Amino acid sequence: MKPILLDYLVCPACQSELDCDVSEQVGEEIVSGSLRCPQCKLTYPITRGIPRFIDPQQGLSPSNPQTANAFGWEWQEFRELHNLKTYQKQFLDWVKPIPPEYFKDKIVLDAGCGMGRWALVCDTLGAGMVLSVDVSEGIEAAYDNTREAPAIHVVQADIYHLPLRRGPQAQIDFAYSIGVLHHLDDPQGGFNALVCHLQTSGSIFAWVYGRENNDWLVNIIDPIRKTITSVMPHFALYLISWLMTLFLHPVLKWVYWPVNQWDGLASLKKLLPYNDYFAWLASFGFRHTHSVVFDHLVAPVAFYIRREEISAWFDEAGLEIIDLTWRNRNSWGVHGRFKAQN
User: Fold this and answer.
1) Residue among 185, 189, 193, 158 at smallest CA distance from 60
2) Dihedrals φ, ψ of 120, to 5°?
3) Measured between alpha carbons, how far is residue 78 from residues 133, 188, 244, 315 in Å?
């Protein structure tokens, strides 16, 4: 944890500024210590360089601890970074049509950072500060992957109770949550919890699974995930998803990739099921595809959200939609900001 983070962290319970007791510091990095709230007397530990705002005694409420454990295991297993330029291209595709220059000098909240790849992208795009938050033990991988980037700050906290200023005192210019909200017990509640940390001039981007065009996932894969794969030992699922990838990856590379790259085969696109998504997935390597297959099967909680539902989230939170994209014809990416006051 870098000392400058104290200018942004507050007690999630009462919003008071925090006092820092340092036990070990290496250079500018606070490796261990604690953060104390002088108002409500709560104490939050700093361990292995990460401020922790998760109380093991209270648990995660209403967030699902099984889901957090599942993704914590996933992001520690699939923690390795690949090509940063590929990540940048992928991230900008997620948030499209937000341009690269949009991130310049902004205070950015990465809500559900996983192993930290998108935070690194925001750093390369010139963000002034990236606050990377995750509830799971995957935060360990995020810290290891981003610790050399001075603008990135990693915090373990629950989306519903972030240790950041709210309302008129909020400091976030741009918040994004990619692939996280639909895994919460209350997705709209999680979205609202992020909105309250935005400055009045700020904006938020959310990407969620779509209900439209996902009948096969909802009717076939979802029941299997709920009853079988999400409750099996993670390493067993790792092996099963590896075997599934062993079959899927050649199909992606030898069928979907050439059909979508060569003009002479373009007429075959309509014959390929789920073409938009699989064509995108075909651009990555085996390890990435394995992580995607594992990701779809590991979570105990997953919602598939319709366009009108996520549009209502923004409207009910007092936000106007800047852009709404049906990404790969199976998911929704929505960017919004506070409505102008008359």
Assistant:
1) 158
2) -65, -40
3) 18, 28, 17, 36
Residues of the chain with CATH 3.40.50.150: 58-210+305-338
Compute the distance between CA of residue 63 and CA of residue 253 in angstroms, rounded to an integer.
37
pLDDT digits (tens, 9 = 90+) for 221-244: 999 999 999 999 999 999 999 999
How do residues 69-123 score in pLDDT, each as one tens digit?
A: 999 999 999 999 888 998 999 999 999 999 999 999 999 999 999 999 999 999 9
Is the CB of residue 108 less than 8 Å from the CB of residue 174? yes
From CA 292, how far away is CA 136, in angstroms rounded? 18
Pair 289, 249: CB distance under 8 Å = yes
The answer to whether residues 311 and 321 touch, using CB atoms and an 8 Å cutoff, is yes
User: CA 310, CA 275: separation in Å to the nearest integer?
Assistant: 24
What is the length of the chain? 342
Q: Could you say which architecture CATH assigns to the domain 58-210+305-338?
A: 3-Layer(aba) Sandwich (3.40)
Residue pair 159/61 in contact (Cβ under 8 Å)? The answer is: no
| Both structure tokens of 303 | 């919602």
Please state the φ and ψ torsions of residue 87, each to the nearest 5 degrees. Answer: -60, -40
- What's residue 342's pLDDT? 53
